Amino acid sequence: MSSRQIKLGAVTMGVGGPGHHYQWLDPEIPGDASVNVNWYIEQARLAEAAKFDLIFIVDSQFITPDSPPHYLNRLEPMTLLAALAVTTRHLGLVATMTTSYNNPFNLARRLASLELISGGRAGWNVVTSGDAGAAGNFSRDEHYDYDTRYARGLEFVQVAQGLWDSYEEGAFPRDRQRRTFLDPARLHALHHKGTHFSVVGPLNVSRSPQGQPVIFQAGDSEQGRDLGAAIGEGIFTHAASIEAGQAFYADIKSRAAAKGRDPDHVVVMPGVSVFVGDTDAGAREIERELQLADQDFDRALGELGRPFAWHDFRQYDLDAPFPDVLHVAERGFRTQAEKIVQLATDNNLTLRETVHRLSAPRPTPFAGSPETVANEMQRWFEERALDGYNIHIGHPAQFRRFTHDVLPILRERGLLRTEYESGTLRGNLGIPVPENRHTLARRAAGAEPARGSVHELMPMA
Known about the structure:
By secondary structure, the chain is an alpha/beta fold. Helices cover 38% and strands 11% of the residues. It has 15 helices and 12 strands.
């Protein structure tokens, strides 16, 4: 059995996310999948049966008619995950929540509630929002600039973590004989006053068995990588090749170490699509057919606007050089927009050619027979391009082939768990429980006996 094992996340995009305009035509996918709680429950149970670490619910707070089908009509993540919490026992529950259009107290309280409902399985994917149009839904004239977004994001997380330490262990003796419900010495207000937030506290929700929700982060810009290295316990990313994965992996781990963190407690999990067939050639044909089925030039042209703050590209001559519009992405998904502009510039592409290039079917690293896919997943893992995979649940038949045919091979090689190690998300990911800062200070002052190591993982519930 390998001491280091592959971690697995399941990413659900219901009727079809970016680039998957017609996924909803699959007869196995309900037309209302993205708002159908029973469909989500089924996906969560399938992922738990396959011993996945977590299910990941993506989110954003602005749409246009060009948004992908799943984005147009989907359930709010925290509400949804509360339902999944009571229909699963071990699966981690991770929600995307923006620091740009939330307040720390409310979000910390909602996540802490999910923690208690689930017994310590909550995770928070921290985003600063790239959809500039969201500003108009939250009484702002314009979206925050990049530097402000990330500075606000860091302070937001620090405030939330402070609030999660409001109660120490033993704060609620609930002693009926002495009529004592609360030990006030173990309740702590935060009294935070910072650049972006002023929060008194304390939070009115106690800690869960895993101490605090697991913090995930996804961002490839310099600011995004620095934020991930500072606060991320799980890193969501993308890697087009094993070399790109290795470069990102080494960079994020070294940044974490430079900030005084243990890089082994930062779990890197890129999102991937997997295509499985009876043979390698058969899998490549399935991959090509599914990618071609999603092609629609006009939809792709409209969706191209998203990283550029939903700029309208239909106004340009399709056969002229790619327009000079990078400046509009300053308050959008700037890193993604920069990559698109670089592609067009380096290859002298017209707007039409750029859209075709971005939406054309392309081979993915993880397509082939079950043995081929397992071998490639093992290679990326052992050569330190990642710690685990976020598997996109797209077409149900393909997800079944992955869980039924590929995972048993990896499990036989000792690279995947056979049973859950813990009842908490931290325990299953191998991430330590953070000790309450007030308990730590009390112990440092000699006023508190040791209660176990900060690196001790929660046992199976």
